[in-house]
Design brief:
It is a single chain. The protein has 122 residues and is mostly beta strands. The chain is 4% helix and 34% strand. The protein has a single domain, classed as Domain of unknown function DUF1214, C-terminal domain (Jelly Rolls, Sandwich), CATH 2.60.120.
Amino acid sequence: MDGTNTQLNGDHTYTLTFPRDALPASFAEYFWSVIAVDPVYARVLPNPKNRFLLNRESGLKYNADGSLTLYFAAERPKDAPDPNWLPTPKGQDYRLTFRFYGPKGGVADGSYYPPPLVRVDS
């Protein structure tokens, strides 16, 4: 769900910004990732770019203040660095799955929630 508790859908564009003091890597000893999956079977969704996850190996671009913004949309938003964009299926509902290998801090004790997804289109 996005920050307004609305189902994610590929007809919309969403951002997720992690503050520099709460980047995903700070919650995983080994590896973190985010994938888009279908809401029924939790299968990874195909896309024309064949990009199925974002993680530290994606070449992510950090913001000037050290924060990290990820983008989820059927088409890359013009202000989104390509490595920070995960293509999503146009017209289809989906969910995001975060994985933290070697969880630390709030992920390990179950108190962590990622920042809210923000729908940036109308």
